[in-house]
Amino acid sequence: MKVQGRPYRTIWQESEGGDVSIIDQTKLPHEFSVVRLGSLAEAAHAIRAMLVRGAPLIGASAAWGLYLGMREDSSDAGLAEACETLLATRPTAVNLRWAIERVGGALRDTAAAERVAVAARMAAEICDEDVDICRSIGEHGAEVIRSTWEKGGRAKPVQIMTHCNAGWLATVDWGTATAPIYVAHEAGVPVHVWVDETRPRNQGASLTAWELGEHGVPCTLICDNAGGHLMSRGEVDLLITGTDRTTANGDVANKIGTYLKALAAADNRVPFYVALPGPTIDWTLDDGARIPIEERGAEEVTRIAGRAESGRVEAVDIAPPGCSAANPAFDVTPARLVTGLITERGICEASQGGLAGLYPERSRGKAAS
Ligand code: MRU
Fold first, then answer.
1. Residue 241 alpha carbon to ligand 1 centre in Å
2. Residues enclosing ligand 1, CB less than 6 A?
3. What is the band of 3 on the pLDDT scale with cuts at 50, 70, 90?
4. pLDDT at 369
5. Cβ distance 222 to 326 under 8 Å?
6. What's the gap in Å between 246 CA and the centre of ligand 1?
7. What percent of the chain has a predicted confidence (pLDDT) above 70?
8. Which long-range contacts (CB under 8 A, 24 or more apart) does 144-150 make?
9. What is the mean pLDDT of the chain?
10. Domains of the chain, earliest start first
11. Band of the pLDDT at 6, cuts 50, 70, 90?
12. What atom in ligand 1 is closest to the CA of residue 201?
């Protein structure tokens, strides 16, 4: 998608054999800064510290991290170390494990001298595939937006609510939850997006509002607590969120607060859709309660960062000194609250049968990669 008119992906290799570049998402929306990753340690740090984030981009970053690891040490020991380091960065997004298994597995069957080239080729493939997948999610999801608009007599923009950032910044391009919005917008279907700020890290305020604005999609930022009220007033036609891991029975882990939105949507009969690429499905689990939930530092809750009047970005305390704080970063929305899963293969019911219908080859082999 475009930043100041120039098309960008979220991750790319500068030149053959060269470093990997990313957009530092911790600096947005105040500064657009591109950072070079030159080592395994830098790639692992970028994932852990959320310079890159969002399930598909975490997977793509892990694949490039393996390439950087192989550049440093392509021995079997180096490969094992790179896989282990990257796997330990963030636990909830299953795309991380998926990418490491896919690239790491192929590298184990590759001679050490070839591993750098094979890792680079596979990481680039994962990125290209992600772009195609997200574009397809966009096309399927845009049909839901278009039919909502048509049912309303094409009288007013479709009001869509989203949580966190499942936009192009969370993938390689297009996004998952935002892809239907971008496709509909480009097709001339009028849309307006309610953007949840998404405490504690404010991915909605700092990333979703920024990327929608850069692309010219009308949106309004709301605090997390406003969603239920807007739904009860009939001001939301549908919700679309992303997911970090969807189990084989259709339970959906996503950014903390998603579950509350799904509850409010069910109470108000507002359709609640989840957009996801195939690699976000964890076929080894059939119960969302078994998804590991990342617990992040208390300071993300007790402090907040923003640009001060001086123009400097500063972090300030918002809680009493020493106040204890819990910070579960994700929650699980049970399949029964999900109206439909929007995938690159079409839209299905959030259920074992629904997912098996779209991915028959995966559901038969369940844990196979
Ligand atoms: O902690 P984050 O910012 O990585 O969490 C991201 C989300 O929860 C996204 O909604 C999810 O990864 C889907 S991304 C297409």
1. 9
2. 53-56, 93, 164, 166, 170-171, 175-176, 203, 242-244, 254-255, 329
3. confident
4. 38
5. no
6. 12
7. 98
8. 144/180, 144/238, 144/271, 144/273, 144/340, 144/342, 144/347, 145/180, 145/181, 145/184, 145/189, 145/191, 145/238, 146/184, 146/187, 146/189, 148/237, 148/238, 149/189, 149/190
9. 96
10. 2-128 (1.20.120.420), 136-368 (3.40.50.10470)
11. confident
12. 3
pLDDT in tens, 222-246: 999 999 999 999 999 999 999 999 9
Task: Report which of 1, 76, 9, 13 is spatially closest to residue 43, judged by C-alpha positions.
Answer: 13
244 is catalytic: yes
Distance, in Å, from the CA atom of 306 to the CA atom of 197, rounded to the nearest integer, reads: 13
Determine the atom of ligand 1 nearest the C-alpha atom of 53.
4
293 vs 227: CA distance, rounded Å: 23
- Residue recorded with tokens 């970063």: 329
pTM: 0.96
Which one from 130, 173, 244, 251 is the annotated catalytic residue?
244
Looking at the predicted structure, is the pLDDT value of residue 366 above 60? no
Distance between Cα 29 and ligand 1 center (Å): 17
pLDDT tens profile 299-312: 999 999 999 999 99
Q: Calculate mean pLDDT across residues 326-335.
A: 98
Query: Tell me, what's the pLDDT at 362?
Result: 87
Cβ pair 85, 39 in contact under 8 A: no
